[in-house]
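Example S7 (structure tokens).
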């Protein structure tokens, strides 16, 4: 089976994508490659950050690879936390440096939305694949809304407060198979897989 490097340090993403590509590609994360550098992601769009992560591995380690950058975009917050999703509770106003980052991120979103009826949001994932120096982009979006309080123990990040449109359970109340049938990342990955199948097989 062909090996493909996923330029991520996020174990949850790796588990999700490995399951999505099971039987087709042997997806290898940075840790397994012995790469423990903190890859910079200092741009202001998901596209640029995903490209930066993938290019970093391609240029420094000569490996074909892909990277994912994902953001939660909330309408009434002008698309925040967006590209700042990972460290939302550590940046801007207010900050919660003393809290676990995920808990702080969720708390900040809920506080900023407090009293607002418009809770529309979406997860957007951008995957960039670098194959022999060429760059390819794949996007996945799922629309939904932000709940009043966290619910569910599965998933990661903002999953406990994200209610996908047409469902009555948050991503964190779904098991991984169910999330993987509808998620932003699954949509982007299915485009990646179609591309790999058409272009290379
Ligand atoms: P890598 O850059 O190493 O891939 P990361 O955790 O920094 O990992 P991102 O910058 O793409 O990844 O993700 C931003 C944050 O958005 C992430 O830390 C989570 O808090 C959140 N996030 C990403 N995908 C998510 C998902 O499927 N469900 C819930 N939250 C998610």
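Recovered sequence:
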């Amino acid at each position: 089976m062909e090996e493909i490097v996923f330029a991520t340090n996020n174990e949850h993403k790796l588990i999700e994508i490995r399951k999505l590509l099971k039987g087709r590609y042997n997806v290898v994360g940075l840790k397994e490659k012995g790469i423990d550098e903190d890859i910079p992601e200092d741009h202001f769009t998901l596209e640029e950050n995903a490209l930066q992560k993938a290019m970093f591995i391609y240029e420094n380690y000569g490996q074909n690879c892909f990277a994912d950058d994902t953001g939660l975009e909330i309408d009434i917050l002008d698309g925040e936390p967006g590209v700042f999703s990972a460290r939302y509770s550590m940046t801007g106003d207010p900050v919660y440096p003393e809290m676990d980052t995920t808990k702080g991120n969720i708390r900040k979103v809920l506080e900023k939305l407090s009293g607002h009826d418009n809770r529309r949001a979406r997860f957007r994932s951008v995957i960039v694949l670098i194959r022999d120096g060429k760059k390819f982009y794949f996007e996945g979006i799922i629309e939904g809304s932000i709940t009043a309080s966290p619910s569910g123990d599965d998933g990661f990040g903002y999953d406990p407060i994200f209610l996908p449109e047409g469902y009555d359970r948050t991503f964190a109340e779904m098991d991984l198979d169910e999330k993987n049938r509808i998620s932003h990342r699954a949509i982007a990955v299915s485009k990646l897989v179609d591309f790999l199948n058409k272009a290379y097989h």
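Notes on this example. The longest strand covers residues 134-146.
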